[in-house]
Structures are given as C-alpha cells and as structure tokens.
Inverse folding.
C-alpha cells in the first residue's frame, strides 16, 4: 500500500451559535490515495462540504472551530500551519473547485487576470508568461477561442464555461490534489456530462476528492466512495461493490429511492422512501444518528453509536447489523 | 387515452420584449415559448422536460395566465382561458393549481402554516372561519404532516415538510389540474421519493391530472404517462413515456438520456456527444434550433424549421431525419 496523498484523522468541526455548539463533522477519518478519485456523498447538512473546506482551512473561524483531528499532507499537519504557509499551499499543491462558479469567480476581474493571479502568486512567471499560460489552460479545459476568452468577464460566460474557467484556475499550478465540491450540481445534464468528461481526463494527473449528492455522478467518476450522514462516515468501499451491495441501511435507502431509467413504474407502485427528515445539527439523535429513520433499528441503536468497522478487505460500515443482513 | 380532454394548448407563444435603449433600434423579442401545442387528458400525467431556459416554466405559467400570453389558445374543460375576464379567470383558478420548486419562497414567511392553508378558502369566498380551520387541519393530515405544524411558521419546517404544505395548499380546492413546476428539484434525494409518492397517492385519491415540469428524466419517466421534450421554446418530441425511453427519436432526447449519470454503467466514451451550450432564445439559430449542437445535422436543418410530426402512433418528433 503506497502512503496516502492526503490523510484525515479524527476530524471534528463545530459551529458556535446562539443555541450552543453545533457539531457539523464528528470525528471522521479517511485517506485519499495517489491517483485515486474518491467521492464523498451525502445529503445537505451531512457535513461533506464542511469537511472539504476544513482541509484547506477555508471555513471562517469563528463561527467554525476545528475541535480535533489532523490533516496530513506532505508529512505536515495542515491544521498546524500558519496563514502564509496555507496560502503557499492553496491553489498550488491542493486546489479546489466549487459548486457555483458565478459566486466563486471575481465579477470585476477578467478571466485572464484571475487565472494569471494564481500563477503570479505561486510561480516565478512574469505577467505576459502568466497570461500565455492562462490561454493554454483554457485550451486544456476545451474552452473555444481561449485567447479571446481571457478578456471576458465572468458574466459574459455561461454556467458551463464558468465552471471550465474554475477548473482551469485549479489546474494552473498542476496540483497533486483537486477537491471538487459539487462541481456539476448547478449545471444542466448535457453540460454536466461535458464537465464530468473533462474531470475524467484529469484523473491521471492528480488525486481527486469529489463531493456530491448524486449517486449517478459517484458511480461514473469515483473508484471509492465514502457515505456521510449527520457528520459521520457511515459506510465506505469501492464504488461498484458498495452501490451493488450496500451494507448500511442509509446507503441502501438512498439507492432505492432514486427512480432509475428503464425501471418503469408498475401501476400502483411506489418508490421506496426513507421516512422522516435529515436531523438538524441541533437535534442530533442519541445512539446511531440514523436510528429514527431506520427500519432495522434495534434497542441498541438508540443508545450506542456504532463504530466504523472493517467488514471486508476494502469496506467499512458503522452499523450494529451484520453486513449482508439487509 | 381514455379520459376526456382536460387541457388543450394550441400554438402557445410568449415573447418577452427587451427594453429599447435610447436611440437604438428595437431589439428582437426573446422567444421563451414559441408555438407549443399539446393536449392533457383527464387523469393523465404529462411531463414537460428540458434544460434551463428552454421555456418549460414559462409555458406553464402562461397557460395558467399567471403571465399573459403573446398569442395562442388554451382551452380548459372546453373554456377558452384567454377570452376570460379577470374575475372569471379567478373563479376557474379553483380548478387549476400550481406547486413551485422552492417551497420557502412560495409561502408568506410571516404567516403560520394554518393560516397559509386557510387562505385558498378565504380567497374563494368560504366565510365560515371555524369550518376553514377544520378543513386546513384535514389538509395537513392528507399530506402526512402532524397537526402540531398548524401553528408553526414556514422557517420551522424542513424543505420536504414545507413542500408538503405547498401541495396541501394546491389540493385545498380540489382542483382538476395541478401544474407541478420542479416540485422535487430543491429537495434532498431521500425526501424526493416521499414527495413523489405523495403526489402519486393524491392523484389516485382525488383524481387529479398533472402537468409535471422537471429537468430530471429519471423522475419524469417514473412519474409520467406521456412526456414532451422542449428545446428553445418548442416541443421537439412528444410520446408515451415508455416509447420515449425505449426508442427516443430526436437527437436532443437521445443526448439527454445518454447524459444522465447512471448507477449501473461505468463512464463510457461519447457520453457527451453534444457540445456547447443552449443558444440564447433572443437569438436562436436559423432553421432547426438544435442544429448548432446536433451530431447528425444535415444541410436542410440549417435552413428550414422541422414541424412536429407523428412518426408512430402517439409519437411526435420534430426532426427532418426522422420524418
């Protein structure tokens, strides 16, 4: 086993609020291996974005506070770095792309200036070289007529084009790790297919952590997947095996509740649903956080939160049930 | 189709005129809905799908006269909607309701849920306060919400719960038609199934017909009897959902279906044969509006606009190469 590119150990993140301390991420650990595409999947409020933002320390602190944990990259703990060292890292060896490219781009700077900014910060290039490289990057992300696009402002581009610009910026310094937070959620399905194809072509060059709520996207991009619920990882494993034969009732419910193309409804048939709602951060259930919605819940589930345990060589699940008994 | 014709839409158009700048010539109108025709039968669910900006929501709002049409004809139970006066239209609104995508912006945040649910009765002249409260409580029960939500405010509910309130409000006056405009798009995956099941239950219990607008072809196939695919203000394909999914004809429909990430398949090549973005409806391409992105276009596609023609029983396609 090669050493992981990025390792998260026992990370907990909380937000201070008038209602007290709200725990958004509750002691998660995972590794991103070299050359791997790993998906972090879950519904809104499960802590997937907070986890991702913590890696690059992008959460505003306060109200956010990292309670515990280590984020190991290049033999150093990112949580112990000072602001300058973090800036040297961001956009250089670890970059990030976000869900909404309109709010993540600066509306008053041209596309060229924004990409060049990254290069000027992290390399020894001069302005002209940086702009030339920016055009190359736009070409790399298949934006038509890149030289001309350098002079565009974000509002002159469509959503899909803006996402390509974001990706070009993220690629500028040839990062080792790319964190993609819902990169296609705001896009139409045809544009989503184009962007996924682009991400696919990047896989060879870097490790990718993709955050999404869409199991279809997971299935088509990631080799391995982590399922999050209420701030915890409830299941992990190789994508194919996990989607085919989920061990956690939540994963199973999520997969079953999606209408799949081709499985035509029978008259009177209903979709399988997970009852209840995702708990708010201030209403965390006791024991296993999923137990109020789980149809297999037992007495133990109400009091004891199961630990994430290894069940097969590459699979982990946190559930009191024996895997395979669903 | 066994049911009577409930809603007949003929050549519906809605053009938006951009503001004329000082001394400039009048800009071309934005053709949001550009000649849409379809029929919805009683008890049927018709899906309207397409990418953002294709005019599906504008079509729905125009046919309900929430915005005034540019031209066209819509008849509902035999009444021509565009001939009606404002007051007559309001009366008929009892029969046709709408559910919106974002439940939070669709309700008044300063009113309690109970109040929101009594409003339809008050507006339509049911004066008995006590009875209205009773009916509002029954509505809560019908959509599977606990009674203690009656005195809560919208912000105290989750998105899924509030969407149930939106649905309760829509069924309050026992309408014949509900236009559901992306009713599950803003909801989490595990909540989507709950809301879809609720809509299916209500259809059976209350005999409602749906016009279901969505960009999610998986949900549409599951939920709808027939599907219309829109592109740049026009319907490009219309068929039974089974036909549509088993043998899609229009290259746009085929591309849409291929582009959906699926749980089973791995990412195969050529999932994105369609390049580029949807063109602006203010400046649509000449000829077939899809030709600029079409993988199989021919010379004629750049010059003439293909009509929506029946290629198999009940299966209509607007493409020269399939006629």
């Amino acid at each position: 086993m090669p050493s992981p590119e990025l390792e998260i150990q026992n990370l907990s993140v909380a937000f201070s609020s008038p209602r007290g301390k709200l725990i958004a991420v509750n002691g998660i650990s995972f590794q991103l291996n070299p050359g791997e595409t790993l998906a972090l999947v879950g519904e809104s409020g499960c802590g997937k974005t907070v986890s991702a933002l913590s890696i690059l320390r992008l959460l505003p602190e306060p109200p956010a506070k990292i309670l515990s944990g280590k984020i190991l990259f290049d033999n150093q703990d990112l949580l112990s770095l000072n602001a300058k060292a973090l800036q040297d890292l961001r956009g250089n060896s670890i970059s990030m792309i976000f869900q909404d490219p309109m709010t993540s781009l600066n509306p008053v700077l041209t596309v060229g200036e924004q990409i060049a900014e990254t290069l000027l910060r992290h390399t020894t290039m001069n302005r002209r070289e940086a702009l030339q490289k920016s055009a190359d990057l736009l070409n790399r992300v298949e934006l038509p007529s890149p030289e001309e696009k350098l002079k565009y402002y974000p509002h002159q581009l469509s959503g899909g084009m803006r996402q390509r610009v974001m990706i070009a910026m993220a690629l500028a310094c040839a990062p080792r790790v790319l964190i993609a937070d819902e990169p296609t959620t705001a896009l139409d399905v045809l544009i989503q297919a184009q962007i996924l194809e682009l991400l696919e072509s990047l896989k060879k060059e870097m490790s990718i952590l993709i955050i999404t709520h869409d199991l279809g996207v997971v299935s088509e991009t990631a080799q391995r997947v982590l399922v999050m619920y209420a701030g915890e990882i409830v299941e992990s494993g190789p994508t194919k095996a996990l989607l085919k034969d989920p061990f956690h009732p939540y994963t199973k419910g999520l997969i079953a509740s999606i209408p799949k193309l081709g499985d035509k409804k029978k008259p009177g048939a209903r979709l399988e649903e997970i009852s209840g709602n995702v708990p708010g951060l201030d209403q965390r259930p006791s024991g296993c956080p999923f137990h109020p919605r789980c149809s297999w819940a037992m007495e133990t589930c109400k009091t004891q939160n199961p630990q994430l345990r290894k069940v097969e060589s590459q699979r982990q699940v946190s559930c009191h049930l024996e895997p395979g008994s669903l | 189709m066994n049911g009577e014709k409930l809603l007949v839409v003929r050549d519906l158009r809605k053009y938006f005129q951009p503001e004329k700048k000082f001394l400039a010539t009048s800009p071309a109108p934005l053709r949001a809905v550009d000649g849409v025709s379809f029929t919805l039968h009683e008890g049927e669910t018709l899906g309207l799908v397409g990418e953002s900006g294709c005019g599906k929501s504008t079509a729905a709002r125009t046919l309900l006269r929430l915005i005034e049409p540019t031209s066209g004809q819509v008849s509902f139970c035999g009444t021509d909607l565009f001939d009606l006066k404002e007051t007559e239209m309001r009366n008929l609104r009892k029969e046709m309701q709408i559910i919106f995508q974002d439940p939070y912006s669709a309700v008044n945040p300063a009113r309690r849920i109970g109040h929101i649910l009594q409003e339809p009765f008050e507006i339509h002249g049911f004066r008995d306060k006590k009875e209205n409260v009773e009916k509002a409580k029954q509505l809560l029960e019908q959509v599977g919400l606990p009674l203690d939500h009656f005195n809560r405010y919208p912000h105290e509910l989750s998105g899924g719960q509030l969407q149930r309130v939106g649905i309760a409000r829509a069924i309050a006056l026992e309408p014949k038609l509900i236009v559901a405009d992306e009713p599950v798009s803003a909801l989490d995956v595990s909540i989507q199934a709950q809301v879809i099941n609720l809509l299916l239950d209500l259809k059976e219990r209350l005999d409602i017909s749906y016009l279901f607008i969505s960009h999610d072809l998986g949900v549409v196939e599951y939920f709808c009897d027939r599907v219309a695919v829109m592109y740049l203000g026009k319907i490009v394909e219309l068929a039974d959902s089974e036909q549509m999914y088993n043998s899609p004809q229009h290259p746009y429909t085929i591309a849409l279906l291929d582009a959906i990430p699926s749980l089973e398949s791995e990412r195969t090549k050529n999932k994105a044969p369609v390049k580029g973005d949807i063109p602006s409806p203010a400046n649509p391409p000449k000829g077939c509006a899809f030709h600029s992105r079409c993988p199989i276009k021919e010379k004629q596609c750049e010059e003439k606009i293909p009509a929506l023609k029946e290629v198999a029983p009940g299966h209509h396609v607007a493409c020269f190469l399939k006629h």
User: Anything to note?
Assistant: The first strand of chain A starts at residue 6 and ends at 17. The CA atoms of residues 101 and 162 of chain A lie 6 Å apart. The radius of gyration of chain A is 21 Å. The interface with chain B takes residues 43-44, 158, 160-161, 188-194, 196-197, 200, 213-217, 219-221, 243, 253-255, 257-265, 268, 270-275, 277-278 of chain A (CB under 8 Å).
